[in-house]
Amino acid sequence: MEKPLRIAITGAAGNIGYALAFRLAAGNLLGPDRPVILQMLEIAPALGALEGVCMELRDCAFPTLDGLVATADANEAFDQADICFLVGARPRGPGMERKDLLSANGQIFGPQGQAIAARAKKDVRVLVVGNPANTNALIAASAAKGLDRRQFHAMTRLDHNRAISQLAEKTGSHPREIRKVTIWGNHSSTQVPDLSQATVGGKPAMSLVDAEWYKGTFIPTVQQRGAAIIKARGQSSAASAASSAMDHMRNWIQGTPEGDWVSMAVPADGSYGVSEGVVFSYPCTCKGGDYQVVKDLPLDDFLKEKLAATEKELREERAAVESLLG
Ligand code: NDP
Predict the structure, then answer these.
(1) Residues 153, 160, 187, 248: which is the catalytic one?
(2) pTM score, two decimals?
């Protein structure tokens, strides 16, 4: 057995945290030879529920689970962490404006960024799932003095996986035959699911589907899939979000397959005309434990317009939390 990996999960007693903790404890991130220690953070009122999660985790007797920490103290949760999944976030309350939501979450993600910088390993990888995820990642990265902003990502992998699933269904293929799907921009309804480079069994996806389906059905279905799941299940997506968070982290650590890429919301670096200062979802490849934005893909006018709209939304989110950015 290798040295245990310390994995912090915030909001660990919530819906997504509950799904994530068991998959991680079962060794589904890096395999059966890499034990894990789960360091779970909750707000004080949820510590009772978190204790229940710990009891169930122990009851599974997972061979890969080497330890559990359940705490309301961020410094304890992030102590020596190799990986952090920031899942817990303030949900939108009745009458709450988007600006209020952004600022309430800023109060959570700023201190968490500071605690990560103070206590986690210097090469920690952080994935923000809690919404508004891109801007929460921006706030956490900006508060984490001494760490590189590139260590803070937000999740658009569930949107990416949903896009693959929709395309597979439409073309009667299997998700494993699909390559080079992209989600651009914000993890919100302005996200841009893009099939212009995608292939199915080696054939261009756009030669297999018509433009009307792409613009009129595919894009809105991917953008609104979360709402469709709430309607069907009576609860928001949780297992698929947890699974996608693990996909993101696994690819970041172990790399992406040759000839494919994944969607990751990472600090904008000027690629595709998106200047620094926001966390933007791009097509990315990973190698040697690091990621690179795939550069210089052609964008048609339709995509350029959509990218501009999602970037505008991210700039507005940034403006609403500017005072929290160090
Ligand atoms: P969930 O576990 O269902 O969701 C957690 C966060 O993930 C929400 O912000 C949610 O956004 C977001 N999210 C991102 N992508 C998805 C997706 N595809 N589907 C669903 N959600 C998505 O929320 P719960 O309310 O069940 O649990 C949250 C937990 O976090 C609670 O136990 C709470 O106590 C805790 N918490 C912990 C904090 C901390 O550790 N300091 C701080 C704040 C809360 P959206 O709201 O838009 O659905």
Answers:
(1) 187
(2) 0.97
Long-range contacts of 97-105 (CB under 8 A, 24+ apart): 98/320, 99/320, 101/132, 102/132, 102/135, 102/317, 102/320, 102/321, 103/320, 103/321, 103/324, 105/130, 105/131, 105/132, 105/135, 105/136, 105/139
**Does ligand 1 lie within 6 Å of residue 8's CB atom?**
no
Per the CB < 8 A criterion, the answer to whether 186 and 161 are in contact is no
Within 10 angstroms of residue 80's Cβ, the number of other Cβ atoms is 12
Backbone angles phi, psi at 184, to 5 degrees: -105, 145
The answer to whether the bond into 220 is cis (omega within 30° of 0) is no
The number of domains in the chain is 2
pLDDT reported for residue 144: 98
At residue 301, the pLDDT reads: 97
**Tokens describing residue 175:** 């998700």
Confidence category of residue 95, pLDDT binned at 50, 70, 90: confident
pLDDT in tens, 11-69: 999 999 999 999 999 999 999 999 999 999 999 999 999 999 999 999 999 999 999 99
Percent of the chain residues topping a pLDDT of 70:
100
174 given a catalytic annotation: no
**CATH number, domain containing residue 246:** 3.90.110.10
Q: What is the pLDDT of residue 5?
A: 98
Ligand 1 contacts CB of residue 313 (under 6 A): no
In Å, how far from its chain's centre is CA 41?
18
178 lies in which domain range? 157-318
Asked whether the predicted pLDDT for residue 192 surpasses 80, the reply is yes
Look at residues 84, 104, 105 and name the one whose alpha carbon lies nearest to residue 39: 84
pLDDT confidence of residue 1: 72
* For ligand 1, atom 19: residue with the closest CA: 237
* Of the residues 154, 180, 205, the one at which a domain ends: 154
**Measured at the alpha carbon of residue 19, what is the angle toward residues 17 and 21, in degrees to the nearest 5?**
65
